[in-house]
């Protein structure tokens, strides 16, 4: 009888142990191989400084296309600051009360005093962050405190150099028609995006240095602030043309939208309509379709291409990595510059 009881106890213990082992094994399998049918996309909030900016709008359109192609992986929610940092601050406040896996911010005013507070709050919440734009030194130091935050920016030094080279080539081939007063000095107007804007500062500096490094002397007639906007630039150039008229030998614009405004302003006075003798060289940046069309028609001199699709892909790939807890550059060809946290996307000269 005792042998029977011992045998029964042994059998029961064996069954219980085997059941536990099976349960543990099954749990381990499910943990290692998650059910792909239950996969949900990561949610990324995208804050853009102004959707009236044609290039920024193209970036948004490309992000939307990426979402359509990869709707099981990512969902973008867009917020338009309309050029107002206060509006953007409120949008960010609202989003921080919700559940998003990552944030992409293209600040309306990256030098605003409120930016440091925003970055600090995002860092405290341990939310991955991509800043679309050039870093200031103080902002760079602040963002480095967040090991889930990086910058994605354009190579604005390259942009300025390319713009300058376009002017150099135009001067070398058409100096007789450009140098109206025959003083061997290029008199120009600089159309800047905004005052105290990092991208505008860099593009302005290197476009002129490229011209000077080619042995061409320059004289700035005026700096006009066009706010990256076509209509604002058009109004500014209309006024400046009435003041300086035939003294203007070139217009260098920080972006294409303002360059287009400059073309339209000059056309009002009979310039830049296809007659080379009545054409003032105008160079822009971004490579938006309308600017390229004006170049093909001979109304605008040149531009540098900043591919909005390449920018959108970088935001998507890096944003997805950070949202999933991966290294920002994992499985990409991107590299950080000397800051250690900034990806700089290249420009290229548009060649018809």
From TrEMBL:
Transmembrane segments: none annotated. It is found in: Cell envelope. Pfam families: Peripla_BP_4. Keywords: Calcium, Metal-binding, Periplasm, Signal, Sugar transport, Transport. The keyword DNA-binding does not apply. It comes from the Bacteria. GO terms for molecular function: carbohydrate binding; metal ion binding. Residues 44-326 form the Periplasmic binding protein domain. GO terms for cellular component: outer membrane-bounded periplasmic space. The keyword Ubl conjugation does not apply. CDD domains: PBP1_GGBP (cd01539). The ABC transporter complex is composed of one ATP-binding protein (MglA), two transmembrane proteins (MglC) and a solute-binding protein (MglB). This is D-galactose/methyl-galactoside binding periplasmic protein MglB. It comes from Clostridium saccharobutylicum DSM 13864. The lineage of its organism: Bacteria, Bacillati, Bacillota, Clostridia, Eubacteriales.
């Amino acid at each position: 009888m005792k042998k029977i009881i011992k045998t029964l106890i042994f059998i029961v213990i064996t069954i219980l142990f085997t059941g536990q082992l099976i349960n543990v094994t099954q749990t381990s399998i499910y943990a290692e191989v998650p059910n792909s049918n239950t996969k949900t996309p990561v949610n990324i909030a995208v804050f853009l400084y102004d959707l009236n900016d044609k290039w920024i709008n193209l970036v948004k359109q490309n992000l939307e296309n990426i979402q359509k192609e990869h709707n099981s992986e990512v969902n973008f929610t867009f917020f338009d600051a309309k050029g107002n940092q206060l509006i953007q601050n409120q949008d960010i406040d609202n989003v921080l009360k919700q559940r998003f896996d990552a944030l992409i911010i293209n600040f309306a005013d990256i030098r605003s005093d409120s930016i440091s507070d925003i970055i600090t709050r995002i860092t405290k919440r341990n939310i991955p962050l991509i800043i679309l734009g050039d870093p200031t030194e103080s902002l760079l130091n602040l963002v480095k405190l967040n090991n889930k935050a990086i910058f994605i920016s354009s190579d604005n030094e390259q942009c300025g150099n390319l713009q300058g080279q376009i002017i150099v080539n135009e001067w070398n081939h058409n100096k007789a028609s450009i140098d109206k007063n025959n003083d061997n000095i290029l008199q120009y107007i600089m159309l800047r995006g905004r005052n105290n804007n990092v991208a505008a500062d860099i593009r302005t500096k290197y476009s002129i240095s490229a011209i000077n490094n080619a042995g061409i002397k320059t004289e700035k007639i005026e700096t006009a602030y066009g706010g990256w906007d076509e209509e604002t630039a058009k109004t500014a150039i209309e006024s400046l043309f009435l003041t300086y008229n035939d003294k203007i030998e070139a217009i260098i614009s920080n972006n294409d939208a303002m360059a287009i405004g400059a073309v339209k302003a000059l056309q009002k006075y009979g310039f830049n309509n296809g007659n080379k003798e009545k054409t003032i060289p105008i160079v822009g940046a971004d490579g938006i379709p309308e600017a390229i069309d004006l170049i093909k028609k001979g109304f605008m001199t040149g531009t540098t291409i900043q591919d909005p699709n390449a920018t959108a892909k970088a935001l998507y790939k890096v944003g997805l990595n950070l949202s999933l807890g991966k290294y920002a550059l994992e499985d990409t060809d991107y590299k950080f510059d000397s800051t250690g946290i900034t990806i700089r996307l290249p420009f290229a000269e548009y060649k018809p």
